[in-house]
Amino acid sequence: MRERPTPERLDDENPAWTAESVAKVGPANEVLPQIFGEQMAKEMLKPRGRPRVEFPKERINIRLSQDVITYFKAAGDGFFSACLVKYHIAAKFAR
């Protein structure tokens, strides 16, 4: 179990927030350019992660018979991609 921090061990460079310091806080897009400059702030505020796609894929559950799974796994690594290609072809012909 961790010990509770004692006042002697608290970080002097990061003091506790006061009502006055909280009142000075603003949105990151307004404060960061003043501290780091426009270019660095723009880089820091850039959204992270994978970009949104126009038509995202949807997660579904599918149950396949063992012989279908064996057929596609026989193709080796990337068997699921091969399965997906077959589904795309089937969907084109079904239209």
TrEMBL record:
It holds the Pfam family BrnA_antitoxin. InterPro entries: BrnA_antitoxin (IPR025528). This is BrnA antitoxin family protein. It comes from Rugamonas apoptosis.
